[in-house]
What we know:
Layout: H1 2-20, E1 24-25, E2 32-36, E3 41-43, E4 47-48, E5 57-64, E6 73-79, E7 82-84, E8 95-97, E9 109-111, E10 120-128, E11 131-142, E12 149-153, E13 162-167, E14 176-181, E15 192-195, E16 200-203, E17 212-220, E18 223-231, H2 239-279, H3 289-308, H4 312-320, H5 322-325, H6 330-334, H7 352-357
Parallel strand pairs: 2-11
Antiparallel strand pairs: 1-4, 3-9, 5-6, 5-10, 6-7, 8-9, 10-11, 12-13, 13-16, 14-17, 15-16, 17-18
Amino acid sequence: MELSSARVCLVLLSLFAGLASGLEIISVGPTSIEKASGQSVKLDCQFSLAPEDSGPLDIEWSLLSSDNQKEDKVVILYSGDRAYEDYYDPMRGRVHFNSADPKNGDASINLSGLKSSDTGTYQCKVKKAPGIRSRKMLLIVMVKPSKPRCYAEGPTQEGKDIVLRCTSSEGTNPLQYSWEKTSDNKLLPASAVLDPVGGTINVKNASASASGTYRCTSSNRVGTEDCILYLNVTPPPNTAGIIAGAIIAVLLILIIIAIILFCCCRARHRKKYEKEICNEIREDVPPPKSRVSTARSFTVGSQRSSLGSMSPSNLHEYALKPQYDKIPSSEDYERPPSHAPLPPPNGAKMAGPNLSRMGAIPVMIPAQNRDGSIV
């Protein structure tokens, strides 16, 4: 029993010795590579075969998962004397074997158009029974810094603290920022404080000499970008003049508003007064006295003329008629001229002898006073 166990051990040792002297990965290049996005990279995997490696050749490149719970992703294959280069969709058209015939001992691959998602650990596994060998390589795809944005933060006035800021929106960390002055004496202000990680430069108690052109450079291990900033430090504003100007402007605005309100109120009162005058009811004015006296004189004169032309036979009738004794009232005076009694026409005056010849009888006419009454 002990002899047979010793023989088994010798057989196993011989087998391991044969495997050790068979298939080998002979690449000695770096196992960690850093590249910028958009560039190309070659992942080296050279191998050698031994006479005892007589099985079919299989080459497999896979992207190992950082999480042990997830499966590795096969990127490219070579099996049965055929290459399968479009096996992994995210790298379709970007990954190829470096050799047209990997059987010659070159299992290296070329990956072009690198993306940040290509970052990871790649494993090259070569199998040719009974030998199996593998090699791992770390690929880091870094993003070049984007063009930074330069600007001044806060008021750029003398005596103030001015902060110059520089920021790249894209880029693989760590990013480093540096500032330099490219105008005048090309020296940063003595009070300037730099922050290479935050990308700021703080100029305390700035003076006019801090004015000029500044350049900020953003960099990482795969590239650099810069931006230009022109800083103009101005004198402080005249605060007293600004306050006085503001007060004057406010007073002018108040005066204009007051004038407008005064004009509006005045126009409103004038319009109201004119409206009241138009709607006012006025009392009738009594007729002038001169008109009454004229009508009275006209009537009395007419009565005198009538009495003067009456004969004694007519006097009796005149005395019997009350209308001749009636004194005209104010209503009679106000009566239209068409209703007023017209005076009798004046006949032609004849002398006494002529009347006698015509057979007239002389009659005494009673005398009359001024108001027309018989004496």
